[in-house]
Amino acid sequence: MPQTLTPAAELAKKAKTPFPGASAEYAAARQALLAEEIEFRRHMTRLVEQRQDLPAGPVIEKNYRFKDEQAFEVGLLDLFGDKDTLVTYFWMYGPQRERPCPMCTNLLGALNGNAADIKQRVALRVLGRSPVERQYAFAQERGWRDLNFVQTIGDDYAKDIGVLQPDGSEYPALIVFKRDGDKVRLFWAGEMTGEMADPGQDPRGAPDIASLWSILDLTPGGRGADWYPKLQY
Question: pTM surpassing 0.90?
Answer without folding.
Answer: yes
